[in-house]
Amino acid sequence: MRIESGDTAPVDWDAFVAAHPATSAYHHAAAVSIGRDAFGLRCTFLSARDAQGALVGVLPLVEQSSFAFGRYLTSVPFFTYGGVLANDDAIAVELAKHAGELGKERRAAHVELRHTAPIQGLDFADRQDKVSMVLPLPATVEALSKQIGSKLRSQIKRAERENPQVRWGGAELLDDFYSVFSASMRDLGTPVYPRKFFDVVQRAFGGSSDVLTISVDGTAHAAAIIVKHGNRIEVPWAACSPQGKPMALNMRMYWEMLKLSVERGAQAFDFGRSSPDSGTYKFKAQWGAQPWQLHWHYWLPAGAPVPKLNNSNPKFQLATRMWSRLPLWCANAIGPLISRSLP
Question: How many domains, in total, are found in the chain?
Answer without folding.
Answer: 2
